C-alpha cells in the first residue's frame, strides 16, 4: 500500500521475532527503550546526530527487522 507503519508496544523478543517474520521494518517499545525525560532524549539525539544509532542497554535482535 506504500505506507510506513511503526509497530508500537514491543516488550518481548518473541514480539520482535514475530514482526521480523512479518517483514516489519520499524518498531518501538520497552524492548528498545523505556520512556525518557525530555532532557535525556534531546541529549541522546544530539549525541547520535552523526551516526543515527540509538543506544540500548541490551541489544535486541534488531538486525532481523526488515530483512
From TrEMBL:
GO terms for molecular function: cyclic-guanylate-specific phosphodiesterase activity. Residues 1-49 form the EAL domain. SUPFAM superfamilies: EAL domain-like (SSF141868). InterPro entries: Cyclic-di-GMP_PDE-like, EAL_dom, EAL_sf. It holds the Pfam family EAL. Signal peptide: none annotated. PANTHER family: CYCLIC DI-GMP PHOSPHODIESTERASE PDEF, OXYGEN SENSOR PROTEIN DOSP. This is EAL domain-containing protein.
Amino acid at each position: 500500500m506504500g505506507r510506513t507503519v511503526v509497530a508500537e508496544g514491543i516488550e518481548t523478543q518473541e514480539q520482535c521475532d514475530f514482526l521480523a517474520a512479518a517483514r516489519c521494518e520499524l518498531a518501538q517499545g520497552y524492548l528498545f527503550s523505556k520512556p525518557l525525560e525530555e532532557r535525556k532524549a534531546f541529549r541522546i539525539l544530539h549525541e547520535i546526530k552523526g551516526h543515527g544509532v540509538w543506544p540500548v542497554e541490551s541489544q535486541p535482535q534488531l538486525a532481523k527487522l526488515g530483512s
